Structure to design on (815 residues):
């Protein structure tokens, strides 16, 4: 029961509508850029689709009791969505200080109508008729329902302004309203998605043009909530320095102590979300923390601060922490006299104390992971202390500690000069420790603001690395590969994918419309069955990995490892992804890096043996193969036969031409020739390493159970993948392919794809499956559709649960 003696604004906090103060400064958030790009792609794709199809015939009302009940429910839900959007507009209009939001909402509604008209195919005599039909939905169904797009725009624009319960209510109503419009036959399924995308597109444009609230709580709200965590504050003000993901406040308690209050609210999380996703995707070793709660962040900072304080590492002492009745997580620490970034001129003593504090933190195995000069503060006793440990990792390995050193070295070099920064680091850490940091002095470690400051400085990272090499007396080491995804790799991936699909389409004479028609006519239940069976493939692969290791491993972690490999294989070549992740995984079981590499090599080699054995059995055993006609295929179907025979031969010709061109370029272009010749020493080194692998393999061979486990796991993998390929083929009405033919196609594509340095074999695998299916008499359109469907259920969709497995491995400290 609420306290009757509490002030009215305290009793009504449970009914809070707005997430921030009316005069809260507006920002432009990275999430709006993502919404803009995604919604623009969806809207553009919908517009292209609408213009490639005939207008749908007007629907007739059906007579049925069940249909009547559904229609009545849908009408009610659609009406509730409209009323809710109107209520949001009225709240903004009638609330003091929110009139500016009304302008945002009206502008978004207009932009949503414009987007809906542009996405819809033209009706009648021009844009006026199109506008009238999208607004009135007569005659229905329409391509884009403008009222749905308007409601979506209003609710999405208002989302950053309102509290989380109202925000999620609006999002739920948008989804239910779109479903209701589809059930009422006002719009088709794609039209409902197009309407939502138009509304989100309009909202993203408004947010980027006019900005959104920062999400900070007001000082009054923070002062009123502090007693709930045991702090009686008499003065609270918004701090001058803010960090993404939380709100910082300066405060004074009843005893006159200066405090820093950090509030992790429900309404200020998107920058942390985007930063975590982007960092995890682009930088190796970083953790995806999109579900990290507010309480976990303050608990992490409190734990790291407590461990550091006990060990004598200077930190800002934590005085209180907890969760308020509003659901905000609050952390209270002692205040700093001054941030190191605000010091006009850093002394050598400041630099030495900063390095000493970081060295002490690393000595405890704690990585800061968000280090900058502002993370150091001068306490009242004059010591330089660490702060802002919300992203700290308490069980960090040496590779996770190096980025902290690199960031501090760069930050101090910017604040002073590179010579003083290096001298301070060498004096505290020693030359060897600084030398270990040199490979991490690269842009991938630094944030955008730091990179901008380096651009304004008189030195570059290349200069800093050269001076570090000179100061430590070592040879210049190679940079550590930290970036998981770069713009170059993304561009290459997109280019390879587009070129591959265009080439396959040209050679098979299958246009986009035919492919879409085949995909629409597929049996969705067969495709769903293939998707359900897809995770079982990794269950067999896990047995192969268990058999390759002499050490005792547990099945569930190994299974999670196989799923996680699917997650990172989207952005890295499969071999590199497997090695990088497996080495880290096996090291957690006490296996050294060399042994981990041997396990992966033995596992891969056993898979290669199984693949070769399957090929020999099918070819020498007289089983149906690529030269055997598909059972039940009529030779009288001239069109199908001619097209089928031309497809694989064309692909073979292109392959031969590509090989010949590659040889000629290697011979006559000196730069390419020298690069190819440079691989010879590496190949010799790999041969020596393979000799060691063979010795380890010989040890595994002495254990028949291990050998049987490896071979059985790889055999089950190949057979099950062929079965899933056959299920995808069944989905398109082809029931005549022999299992041996499917195994032959899958095995051949797997062998060939392993030789291509393309992430995930994108385009290469699709071309191989298309050519193989055509070789056994499958029509080109069906072959290409089957190849795409098979890759969807076995490669493009599995990373969804692969990401969850990666998080499971990190949570249980397996990687």
């Amino acid at each position: 029961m609420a306290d009757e003696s509490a002030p009215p604004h305290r009793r009504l906090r449970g009914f809070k509508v707005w997430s921030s103060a009316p005069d809260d400064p507006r920002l432009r958030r990275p999430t709006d850029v993502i919404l803009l790009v995604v919604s623009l792609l969806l809207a553009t794709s919908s517009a292209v689709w609408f213009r490639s199809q005939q207008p749908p015939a007007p629907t007739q009302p059906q007579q049925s009791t069940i249909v009547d009940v559904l229609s009545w429910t849908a009408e009610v839900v659609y009406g509730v969505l409209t009323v809710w959007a109107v209520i949001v507009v009225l709240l903004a209009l009638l609330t003091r200080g929110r009139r500016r939001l009304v302008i945002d909402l009206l502008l978004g509604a207009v932009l949503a109508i414009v987007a809906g008209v542009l996405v819809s195919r033209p009706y009648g005599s021009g844009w006026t008729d199109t506008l009238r039909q999208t607004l009135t939905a007569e005659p229905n169904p329409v391509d884009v329902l403008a009222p749905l797009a308007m409601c979506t725009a209003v609710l999405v624009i208002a989302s950053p302004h309102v509290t989380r319960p109202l925000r999620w209510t609006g999002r739920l109503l948008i989804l239910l309203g779109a479903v209701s419009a589809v059930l009422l036959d006002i719009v088709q399924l794609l039209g409902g998605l197009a309407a939502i995308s138009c509304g989100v597109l309009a909202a993203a444009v408004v947010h980027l043009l006019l900005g959104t609230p920062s999400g900070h709580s007001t000082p009054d709200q923070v002062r009123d909530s502090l007693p709930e965590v045991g702090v009686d504050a008499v003065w609270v003000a918004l701090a001058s320095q803010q960090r993404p993901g939380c709100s910082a406040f300066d405060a004074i308690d009843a005893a006159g102590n200066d405090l820093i209050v950090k509030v992790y609210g429900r309404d200020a999380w998107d920058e942390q979300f985007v930063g975590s996703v982007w960092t995890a995707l682009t930088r190796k070793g970083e953790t995806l923390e999109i579900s990290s709660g507010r309480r976990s962040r303050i608990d992490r900072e409190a734990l790291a601060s407590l461990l550091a304080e006990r060990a004598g590492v200077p930190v800002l002492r934590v005085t209180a922490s907890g969760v308020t009745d509003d659901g905000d997580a609050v952390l209270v620490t002692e205040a700093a006299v001054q941030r190191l970034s605000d010091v006009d001129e850093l002394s050598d003593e400041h630099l030495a104390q900063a390095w000493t504090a970081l060295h002490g933190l690393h000595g405890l195995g704690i990585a800061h992971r968000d280090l900058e000069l502002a993370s150091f503060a001068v306490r009242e006793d004059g010591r330089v202390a660490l702060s802002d440990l919300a992203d700290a990792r308490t069980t960090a390995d040496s590779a996770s500690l190096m980025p902290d050193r690199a960031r501090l070295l760069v930050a101090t070099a910017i604040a002073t000069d590179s010579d003083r920064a290096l001298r301070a680091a060498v004096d505290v850490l020693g030359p060897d420790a600084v030398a270990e940091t040199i490979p991490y002095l690269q842009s991938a470690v630094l944030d955008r603001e730091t990179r901008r400051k380096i651009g304004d400085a008189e030195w570059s990272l290349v200069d800093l690395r050269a001076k570090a090499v000179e100061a430590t007396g070592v040879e210049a080491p190679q940079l550590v590969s930290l970036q998981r995804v770069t713009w170059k790799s993304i561009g290459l991936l997109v280019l390879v994918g587009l070129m591959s699909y265009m080439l396959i389409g040209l050679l098979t004479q299958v246009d986009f419309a035919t492919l879409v028609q085949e995909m629409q006519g597929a049996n969705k239940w067969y495709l769903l069955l293939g998707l359900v069976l897809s995770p079982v493939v990794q269950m067999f692969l896990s047995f192969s990995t268990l058999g390759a290791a002499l050490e005792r491993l547990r099945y569930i972690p190994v299974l999670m490892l196989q799923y996680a490999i699917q997650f990172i294989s989207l952005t890295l070549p499969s071999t590199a992804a497997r090695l990088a992740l497996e080495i880290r995984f096996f090291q957690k079981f006490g296996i050294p890096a060399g042994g981990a590499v041997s396990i992966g090599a033995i596992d891969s080699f056993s898979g290669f043996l199984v693949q070769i054995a399957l090929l020999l059995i099918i070819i020498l055993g007289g089983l149906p193969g690529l030269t055997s006609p598909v059972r039940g295929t009529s030779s009288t179907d001239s069109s199908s036969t001619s097209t089928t025979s031309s497809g694989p031969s064309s692909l073979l010709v292109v392959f031969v031409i590509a090989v010949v061109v590659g040889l000629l370029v290697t011979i006559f272009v000196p730069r390419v020739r020298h690069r190819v010749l440079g691989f010879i020493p590496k190949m010799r080194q790999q041969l020596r390493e393979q000799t060691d692998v063979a010795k380890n393999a010989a040890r595994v061979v002495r254990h028949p159970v291990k050998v049987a486990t490896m071979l059985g796991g790889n055999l089950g993998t190949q057979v099950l993948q062929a079965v899933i390929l056959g299920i995808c083929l069944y989905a398109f009405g082809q029931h005549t392919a022999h299992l041996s033919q499917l195994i032959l196609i899958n095995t051949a594509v797997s062998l060939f794809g392993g030789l291509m340095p393309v992430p995930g074999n994108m385009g290469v695998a699709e071309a191989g499956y298309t050519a193989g299916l055509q070789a056994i008499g499958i029509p080109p359109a069906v072959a290409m559709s089957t190849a795409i469907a098979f890759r969807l259920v076995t490669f493009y969709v599995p990373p969804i649960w692969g990401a969850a497995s990666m998080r499971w491995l990190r949570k249980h400290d397996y990687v």
About this structure: DSSP finds 31 helices and ten strands in the chain. The CA atoms of residues 23 and 97 lie 7 Å apart. The beta strands are 26-27, 212-213, 233-238, 247-253, 258-264, 318-323, 329-334, 338-339, 376-378, 384-386.
